Structures are given as structure tokens and as C-alpha cells.
Amino acid sequence: MPANKSTVLNGDTTQVIIDYDIVIQRKPVYYLLTFILPCFMITTISIVGVFSPFNDVGDREEKVTMGLTTLLTMTLVLTLIADKMPKSSEGLSLLGTYVLLQIVIAAVTTLISVVIMYQSRSWAFGKPNYFGNGDGFDIFARAKSGRTAILKEIQFTFHHVIERLYEKCEEKNLRKSDEQRLVNSLFSDYNKNLRPVLETADVVNVILSPALFSIVGTDEALESITIVVWLNMVCFTWYMRWTDSFLQWNSTEFGGLNELLIPVSKIWYPDITVSNMIDVEMPISDEKNYAIINDKGAIHISVSQILTMQCSFHIIMFPFDIQNCTLEAASWMFYPDKVDVSYSNNIDMTAFHPNSEWDLISIFARKSMDFSEHHKVTWGSVYYDIIIQRKPIYYLLTFVLPCFMITTISIVGIFAPFNDLGDREEKVTMGLTTLLPMTVIFTFIADEMPKSSEGLPLLGIYISLQIGIASLTSLSAVMIMHLSRQWNFGKPVPAWISTVMQLKLQEHNSPLKEVKTADDFKEHYTQQERLVKKIFENYNKKVRPTADTADVINVTLNPALYSIVRTDEVAESITIVQYFRMTWKDAFLTWELNEFGGMEQLYIPISEIWYPDLTVVNTINIKEPISEERNFAFINYDGIVSAEINQILTMHCVFDITMFPFDIQNCTMAVISWGYNENRLNIFVTIPTDTYLYKNSSEWDLISMTARKAKDEYEFETAFVYVHYDILIQRKPIYYLLTFVLPSFIITTIGIIGIFAPFNDLGYREEKVPMGLTTLLTMIVVLTLIADKMPKSSVGLPLLGNALQLLNPSYRSN
């Protein structure tokens, strides 16, 4: 585990980074026994079977089916391997390359089998040998294929910051006593819960400058992206830098000390939050992270975050797509007149680590001031547009190439001019066998994509086209057999059969202040500090804040739904992001305006005050990205308190899948006070509920969110108040129509036409049985994939599942 040391210039400071290269080696025996040995045996048997010197027509035609079955098996194995590998632009892994080579061998042997049947038929009718003097097949037999495999050693580098170094000052004779005296002087009366301004009307200006470290991964199905960023902030105006008016000093009074290092947990710092985040991890806690403070009060901190945020993926051009994932940063509680957030033009990319699936094209910053007509306030946000482009090589080798080879073999085999009955009847089975792997691959791709109403991605369209080609060739084989039978009885061939339709794919390309500081440090209390000291002098946050014990606290509840992150029909759960808003009156947090210079409002961390214990009772999991210490409550002089809690909530939701994928679901969120009955705490709801901030989902449409109130009474106690929020959502069906219904309809139609075609020969009638079984196998695979996504309900199959069963000719025949 070797170590490397490097330095990174971060603003005015230099950070030391130590990289530990952890080199590991995989034990290959599991993969040798699970993948390589079975693939080798299957391919060997296929080659032996194809090149065995059989002369009967039935033996020769069986070789084609053998080859296509081998191709199907290898393609499924390759898909399973690819599903576990990173989507790297380096190409396939060594194991994937081996399986792909087996696919090529199977394809070549199958093609040779078709050529052999065609040539033997030509000899049987006295036609000349198109391969010269009979040496053509010797050339095929002596052909050698090989490929030199190069296995690159993969190194996983784990980076973390060990410690922050800074220059204490140009002179090296600092005495520890000066630093200690300075800390005692600055923090003796310092309150980290107050905005660091000398006047209430002053604005704290914050500059953001994120440094993108890496793209951890993307989840197209959940429409999320995970990144690692270093957020830097500067106060005045993530590295964050600002001026704290209470943390200034005269350096000459402290031995020339002009810079100080203090834990972030000890000072006030801006509550900058990513509004569209789903999850966030802080590898370095506030207690372990340090802020650099100079004698002018300018503060600089760096906050490391592993951030998962929402990102709407537009997958029309997949896998040649370019995505724009926007990071929205803003102060959680303060309006721009209190904390003004801006951005630096310099975005640090020096420490960025490339991703195996995505190329980072650019990052752009922009600021927006939006006035909300609904809330009558102005919001200030900084947006970072992260433009990324997918590396397509993985998908080309894993999906496009195998599909192309299978379809090509199928077309060559079906349109080869064979005259024997067995040769012609084999074509139908060949076509249906081709449809099965195409449908399976198509389902694998669809499972990784968001259930968007935009339509199929480019790769999905390509495979759908391959399915269409295979369907047309199978239908052509059925028609050829039928017309051949008519021709044998003297009936003419229709003129329209000679028409050739050509399909062509078009490649679409997406266009693609000046810092305000106090001149003189004020050592006396500000009005804000005096107010906080007075009202919290005897305050107890564990006591219900009423003047009389018999009084009831009335809480107004107004949750704002921000987004639907995901639904899990199998687990019967829904995950949402919401802003849980509450308003109530605290009789102990009131003051007279004239005693405190007319100050009307105060911001205090909710961890310092009493607040209602409202709980979602049907929750499965809940995350609050902003801790109580970092979340602020808005307190008015008359005791009215407003709090807003950011919640990522997973709750139970019973899905009625009878009409899937045209279903409408009602997910109910039940809210109750956990400890107080209605005589102590009563809940009021805001009507209508707030959906102003809601971000649209790619799979679901939000129809409505309504509130209703109920009581739960007990024999020995008074009633508890419940508030139920009914979230009514409707599924967008286009994804399932294109992914399941259309391919199933095409396959079943081909099967029905082939089974009910009026053929009289024994060979034609016998061919109907494997045709029906192949169709049945495809339908069972598709039905299993659908059932895997549905809850194990006693209601029965969903509408789509019933449709698949009804479309199955074998099912109907029973």
C-alpha cells in the first residue's frame, strides 16, 4: 500500500494530500468455474456438432438451431457479466472479452453451417461449386482466430485530507500565551447562534466556490447522481469566506498574531444547503474541521461532502447522451436580506478524479433571485450546472455488437435459398429464437433507464428495430412457406411480394462587492445579543411553552412536497423529499420592541427551543440532512415561531396494481403528536397544501395532495389528533407500453400467424409445436420480469400481466 504526498493550493492556503494506493488482486477460481468452464464446454459442443460430417437434411438443419441456441446462452452470460461491471470506456473486461470471443466463434460456426447447407443443396441439384475445387471449406476449417488479452492492474485510490496546514505568520516567534489570550478574549462572550453582524439590518455576504473531487456514480432509474465536493465559503459577500464582526482583533495586542485556527463547531457559519439533495454524508465532522480566521474577521472554511442529488436524465440519445445535473445551493433559513449567497468565478478542478463511465465537460455557475407569488418572498439561489457525457464503448460492445451479430445470422439463415421442407420450416424457429434474446436484452436495458414518458432511448430504439427486423423475417418465412405451397399447386405468386422495404437509422446529435466590515471592533453587546441573553436566561426547552398549564398549543402544519424520489412496488413504499413546516406560539419567547431597538425578529437553532413532536407514524425510514444545530427557527417578537425541517421520508404505501401500468395510487402520510393529546397540543392544517416547489417525476404525475383531520380516542385518555395527507399520483404508462406491450404483441402476432397458417405437410404442422413453445418461453420471461417488480399481492396479476397471458396463444389454446 504505497503512499504519495502532494499539495493543492486552496485560496490563500496550501493543503497537503496523502494518496494511499491500495493494490488488491482478485481470486479467479469462482469465475473460472462459474463462467469460463461452462462457456468453453458449450462452445466446444457447438463446434463439434456443427462440423460433424452428417449428411441427412434433418441433421444439417439442426446445426443452425444449435448455433443460435449457443449464441443465446453466450449473450445472456455476457449480459449478466456486464451488469456487474463498471460502464468503463476502456472496453470489456478480460472475462467479457472471452465470452464475446465465444459469441463470435458460435456466430461463425452457425454461418458456416448455413453455407454448408446451401452448398450441399446446390450440389444435390447439379449446380457448380462456388468455392472452387472443394477447397473452400478447408479454408474455413483452417481459419484461426485469436486475441491477445491484456489485463490492466486496477488501482483504487482513496483520498482523504489528513490535516490542514496553514502559515501562522511571517515571523516564527509566536508565543502560545498570545494565542491562548486571543482565544479567551474572542470567545468569552461569543454566541455562535447569532448572525455575526453589528447591526440587525446588516447583510452577511457569502461566496461559494465548490471544488468537484469525483463523480461517484449515477442512477438513471432513480434519476440521481452522487458526487464528492469540497464546498468553500467566503463571509462577506463551500470554500466559504466571510467576515465575522465579533471575531476581529488588533494583532499588535497579541504579539503580532494575525491568524487563528478554530474548529468550525465553535463559530457561526452559513447554513448553505443543496436544495435538491437526496442524501449527504460529511466525512469530516464540524468538530474535526477547522476554520481559518484573520485579524480582520475574514473567515475561510472547507466542507467536504459526499452528495447524492436529483438529476433529470434525458435518455433519448442513450448511450451517446449528454446530461446536465444542476446543483442548487442556498441558505436554508435566511432570505437574501440576511444572508446573501454569491459565487466565485473560479471553480477548482485541480483535484478532480475521472469517472469510468462519464466525461466531465464543464461546470457553470449562475445566480437567480426568484420572487414567490405564493409565499410573497424573494429566494436567492446559486446554481451549478454539471455537464457530463457518457462513454458509449461499454454499451456498444455489450449490447449493440451481440444484437447485430444475432440479427445478421438470423437474416442470412432465413433468406438463404433452401428448397427442402426441413430447411424452410427451420426458418420460423430460427426467427423466434432470435426474438427471445433481443427481448431479454431489451428488458435489461429498460430496467436501467428511468421510467420516462419521453420514449425509448437510442439504444432501445436500435434493439426495438432489431426485434422488428427479426419479426419481419419470421413473418416472411411463414409467408414464403405458405406461398410455396400455393405455387406447388399451380397458384401464382402475388406481385406485391417483390417489393423490398429498406429501413435506415438517422443519427441525431443533440445541439448539445466589495466586502463590508466594521471599522471598529465593538466590545459591548449588540441589541441582538442582549435580547438572546434575556429571553433564554431562564428558558427550558423541555417544558411546553404555555403561560397556563391548561392552555393548548395550536400548531399550524403546512408540509411542502418537493419531489418523489422513488417508489418500490415490491416493498410497498414511497420515498419523498418534503419541507416539514410548522408554526406555533411560544409564550416564553416574547419581548417588547422598544426595549431592543425595534427588533422584530430573531433566528435561533431549533435545538435551543421547544418545538412540537410531530411524527409521521407510517414512516419506514427518515433522514434529516440538516441537523437541529444547523437548522434555524424564525421567532417573532409576539412569540410566533416558524420552523422548516428538510426530510427525506420513506413511508409505507399500499399499491393497488390491478390497472398497472395505467394505475393511480394514493399514498397517505399520517402525522400525529407523539406525546401530547388534543388537550395539550392541537394540529391545524393549511388548505390548500403547498405544492409550489414540487419537481416533476419522470414516472409519476402528481394529481393532488389533500389534508384531512381525524381523532383517535382511547377509553382512559383523551383523543390524539391525526392529520392525513393523501398524495394522489398517476403512473406515466408510455415506458411500459414500449418496453413490454409492443414487443409482446409483435411476438405473439408472429406466433399466431405461424400456428394458424393453413399448411398441410407433416413438416409444416410439426414446426408449429416448437414455434408455440418458443413464444411461450418468451412470454414467461417477460411476465417474470414484470412480476419481479410488483408486490406479491393477493389481488391477482396487474392489467399488463393479464394482457401477456391473454396474448399467449398456448395459454388461449388451453
TrEMBL record:
<dbReference type="InterPro" id="IPR006201">
    <property type="entry name" value="Neur_channel"/>
</dbReference>
<feature type="transmembrane region" description="Helical">
    <location>
        <begin position="458"/>
        <end position="481"/>
    </location>
</feature>
<dbReference type="GO" id="GO:0004888">
    <property type="term" value="F:transmembrane signaling receptor activity"/>
</dbReference>
<keyword id="KW-0407">Ion channel</keyword>
<dbReference type="Pfam" id="PF02931">
    <property type="entry name" value="Neur_chan_LBD"/>
</dbReference>
<dbReference type="InterPro" id="IPR006029">
    <property type="entry name" value="Neurotrans-gated_channel_TM"/>
</dbReference>
<comment type="similarity">
    <text>Belongs to the ligand-gated ion channel (TC 1.A.9) family.</text>
</comment>
<dbReference type="Pfam" id="PF02932">
    <property type="entry name" value="Neur_chan_memb"/>
</dbReference>
<feature type="transmembrane region" description="Helical">
    <location>
        <begin position="428"/>
        <end position="446"/>
    </location>
</feature>
<dbReference type="GO" id="GO:0016020">
    <property type="term" value="C:membrane"/>
</dbReference>
<keyword id="KW-1133">Transmembrane helix</keyword>
<feature type="transmembrane region" description="Helical">
    <location>
        <begin position="29"/>
        <end position="52"/>
    </location>
</feature>
<feature type="domain" description="Neurotransmitter-gated ion-channel ligand-binding">
    <location>
        <begin position="179"/>
        <end position="392"/>
    </location>
</feature>
<feature type="domain" description="Neurotransmitter-gated ion-channel transmembrane">
    <location>
        <begin position="36"/>
        <end position="119"/>
    </location>
</feature>
<feature type="transmembrane region" description="Helical">
    <location>
        <begin position="393"/>
        <end position="416"/>
    </location>
</feature>
<protein>
    <submittedName>
        <fullName>Uncharacterized protein</fullName>
    </submittedName>
</protein>
<keyword id="KW-0813">Transport</keyword>
<feature type="transmembrane region" description="Helical">
    <location>
        <begin position="64"/>
        <end position="82"/>
    </location>
</feature>
<keyword id="KW-0812">Transmembrane</keyword>
<dbReference type="InterPro" id="IPR038050">
    <property type="entry name" value="Neuro_actylchol_rec"/>
</dbReference>
<feature type="transmembrane region" description="Helical">
    <location>
        <begin position="94"/>
        <end position="118"/>
    </location>
</feature>
<feature type="transmembrane region" description="Helical">
    <location>
        <begin position="769"/>
        <end position="787"/>
    </location>
</feature>
<feature type="transmembrane region" description="Helical">
    <location>
        <begin position="734"/>
        <end position="757"/>
    </location>
</feature>
<dbReference type="GO" id="GO:0005230">
    <property type="term" value="F:extracellular ligand-gated monoatomic ion channel activity"/>
</dbReference>
<feature type="domain" description="Neurotransmitter-gated ion-channel ligand-binding">
    <location>
        <begin position="528"/>
        <end position="733"/>
    </location>
</feature>
<keyword id="KW-0472">Membrane</keyword>
<dbReference type="InterPro" id="IPR036734">
    <property type="entry name" value="Neur_chan_lig-bd_sf"/>
</dbReference>
<dbReference type="InterPro" id="IPR018000">
    <property type="entry name" value="Neurotransmitter_ion_chnl_CS"/>
</dbReference>
<dbReference type="InterPro" id="IPR036719">
    <property type="entry name" value="Neuro-gated_channel_TM_sf"/>
</dbReference>
<feature type="domain" description="Neurotransmitter-gated ion-channel transmembrane">
    <location>
        <begin position="400"/>
        <end position="513"/>
    </location>
</feature>
<dbReference type="InterPro" id="IPR006202">
    <property type="entry name" value="Neur_chan_lig-bd"/>
</dbReference>
<keyword id="KW-0406">Ion transport</keyword>
